Amino acid sequence: MYHVTAEIRRVAEEGDGTRLEIRVDTPLSGLIKERHITHIAVGLEDGRHITPLQLRKAHAMIRDISEHTGYPPEAMKQIMKIEHMMRIGDYEYFSLGTCSVTTAREFINTLMEYALREGIILDEEGLKRTDDINTYLLQCIRYRRCCVCGRDADIHHVDAIGMGNDRRRYDDSAHQICALCRIHHGMAHQMGWPRFQAMYKVYGIRKYQTEEAGDSGRRQGRYGGPGEVCGKGGNTGGNYI
């Protein structure tokens, strides 16, 4: 996901929705045409400060990443802040203790993305650490990590294609998928999706949504940033668009 900051120029209610006119200080027309982007996500700051629960989640994630990389927690926090600013394209420094709820949520997303990409074992399930369940489920699909336990995962098709349909020609873009390890994948089939979903509080992501974000279930290569700093560098860029 590529993040930019925009200025709202005009707002007007239109039917059951809202028409926004915004101005972005970054040239985007080439990217939009190249990737055939037709929809964007809009996030609005609500003025609230980071919550105690968000602060606990962020510090717990930093601790786990610190133990994995060998960097002291405070140093790791600064590294991950830089990583976050690069990820969202906003280089304004922020304080974790006084930032907004929205900034905290996005920072936790960055920490979770790094942990999933590097296969870091967390002290508790990712579902308890995330502050944005939808982004977490997309990240699990991107890096093939089980959204329940964090193990290596396969893509579970919540909606079956059905007998007699040609998988090569059948349009399953509106079907829902979820990343599950062999154990939880088997449980989902044995229990049935409604019971499994109710037990673990997860849900499927429509396939076309994952493809728009470049997350269609193919594990992507690592890139620079903390990976390079920690001696695990790889391809630079390209994972967040």
Q: Count all strands and give the number.
A: 5
| Class by SSE composition | alpha+beta
Whole-number radius of gyration? 19 Å
- Percentage of helical residues? 40-55%
Question: What quaternary form is this?
Answer: single chain
Instruction: State the end-to-end CA separation.
Output: 4 Å
What is the typical, i.e. mean, pLDDT?
82
**Which residue ranges are poorly predicted, with pLDDT under 50 across at least 5 consecutive positions?**
216-241
Strand fraction equals: 5-15%
Shape category: globular
Number of helices: 10
Strand order of the largest sheet: 3-4-5
Largest sheet: 3 strands, antiparallel
Write down the secondary-structure element order. Answer: EEHHHHHHEEHHEHH
Quick synopsis:
This protein has ten helices and five strands, in the order ββααααααββααβαα. With 241 residues, it is an alpha+beta fold. Mean pLDDT is 82; it is low at 216-241.
Characterization of the model:
β1 and β2 (17-24) form a beta hairpin. 42% of the residues lie in helices and 12% in strands. The radius of gyration is 19 Å and the shape is globular. It has helices at 29-34, 52-69, 73-88, 101-118, 126-129, 133-143, 182-191, 193-200, 207-212, 226-229, and strands spanning 6-14, 17-24, 154-157, 176-180, 205-206. With 241 residues, the chain is an alpha+beta fold. Mean pLDDT is 82; it is low at 216-241. A 3-stranded antiparallel β-sheet has the order 3-4-5. A two-stranded antiparallel ribbon has the order 1-2. The chain starts with 5 loop residues before the first strand and ends in a 12-residue tail after the last helix. It contains 10 helices and 5 strands, in the order ββααααααββααβαα.
